[in-house]
# Entry
Amino acid sequence: MKLALVILVAFGFVACGGKKVKVDESSAVTKADITLSAKWVKDKKRKFDVSFEIKNGGKKDVLIAQGDIHCFRGDTQGILRGGDRTIDIRAGEARSVQFTCDEFKGDVPGNFRVVIKRVFDNPNHDGITQGKVLASDLTWSHAPR
# Structure
């Protein structure tokens, strides 16, 4: 009985866990001094977890609203879960963010893809006030292994 329980638990960890895959830095994308690079991706079939670093190489503080971040597996859009509602990054700094892209029906084929639709200037340096759009459609993609 104990052996059956151990086998069942071990199978559960293997079947549900997924494995973190380190992402090559060459997949980083830059637009208007904003660089989006993934540290790792964890494929869980119906969803995936991803850890990003967003670098602000410009001279202006920036804001990214969570509603402007979209995630996909192939052409199928998922639902973004986790992370801050607004990501504010000071000039010359970087911010690490981690979130889950969820709600895929079954094993959807295709690349992992994250799109930041708009990156705003933060002219008041308060982490709240949106100014002009500095970058749009910043798209990162990674082929599953």
Observations:
- Residues 20-142 form a domain with the Immunoglobulin-like fold (CATH 2.60.40.1240).
- The two ends are 37 Å apart (CA to CA).
- The longest helix spans residues 2-17.
